[in-house]
# Entry
Amino acid sequence: MAQRVQGTEDLYGGYMRAWQRMQDVAREVFGVYGFNMIETPAIEQVATFVHGIGESTDVVRKEMFRVFSGALVESLLAKGSEQGLKAKQRLALRPEGTAGVVRAAVQNNLVPQGSAPAKLWYAGPMFRGERPQKGRLRQFHQVGVEWLGASDPASDAECIVMLMQFFERLGFAADSLRLVINSMGDGACRPAYREQVRSFILDHASQMCDDCLERAELNPLRAFDCKNPHCREVMRDAPLAPDHLCDECASHYAQVKRYLDEAGVRYEEDPTLVRGLDYYTRTVFEVEVEGAGVGAIGGGGRYDGLMELEGGKPTPGLGFAVGFERIVLALQAQGVDLGAAEERCVYVACTPDVRASVFGTVLALRNAGVRTECDCQGRSLKSQFKQADKVGACLCVVLGTDEVAAGKAALRDMRSHEQEQVDLADLPSVVAQRM
Ligand code: AMP
# Structure
């Protein structure tokens, strides 16, 4: 039997309904804030991710799935190296959504100078070559938002408020959500802060792991995320970003917090929160669910330099992404089944002698917009009733020789078991009303 790739999942039944429900909630909640949906390709040039996410990040260095056409693989194997490949031949499956959406905004000029910001949301699969485990997949699904052209601290707060409303609409108990925020500074203050963290790590080199020593050169702030207990102990005394913000960044951060207070959003400040991707500036945030044990269910922040890194004009921006699979797990832990509600449907059951005339009845019901099921396997009337129960029909239409001859149908309510006679001509409108 063919096997699915490790770290990937098939979405069907309740799981598929959960994914659709999440997108419906996103459309409703984000729509109120003026966001429109965008879909960009799952495959982009490697350069798009290198420019945006950063050459030195784990995502780009270790986790990105690279894509080569069959012909190219042969020539690469013969040459033994990627040297000489053109940018358009160096492709990857997207590990996250932001870089592609920002590339699309630049390429399609979605934020012309002087115009209103572009407010975009997306939903789709992302790919990372991580070691699969609970809540960590190689193909997973994200819903995300990108707000391009917004610099005001109110937009950071609005984005966070919208994210928390989204989680609550999905069914999370509000007091189970832990929102953590921080400010990472910008091009004016971060380089000096980064250098301080680098020096701090090198000063404590004998107590740090090899990964952190490598991070000191490539991406020192990532040492705050190291899982090694010795490194964590050392990093407790490291310089903290909020203590090293320039005046503009400090004022921006203070205003974001004031707006969050005004909106009544509970948050914790974590001065060690550094997101894994290089593009973040100023505000960053993450959301966890108490007791769910799946890690962050979503996170994001401001990325004022990203449009420029992708070849556009300097344009501020911010956004977030949430992970579908972790949200489903965390909701399950709270007893919420995101994919529970099945579509209501009607089942048309009939005796074999009138099967041919039932075709038109089923068609008329469907034309009236009613989700309709009927037997297509030559089952007995008794097993058709069982089938109606199985598919969760709320109404059952029963047709036999007598009913068809009289131009009538028996309409049975599957819950109360009450039955009535309805004129066949009126059936679609009566059923549509009952649904
Ligand atoms: P990130 O861009 O890494 O912050 O990811 C945003 C959200 O996507 C995270 O908070 C997770 O919920 C989810 N996510 C990230 N990586 C994975 C993965 N490998 N498997 C499942 N969900 C993921």
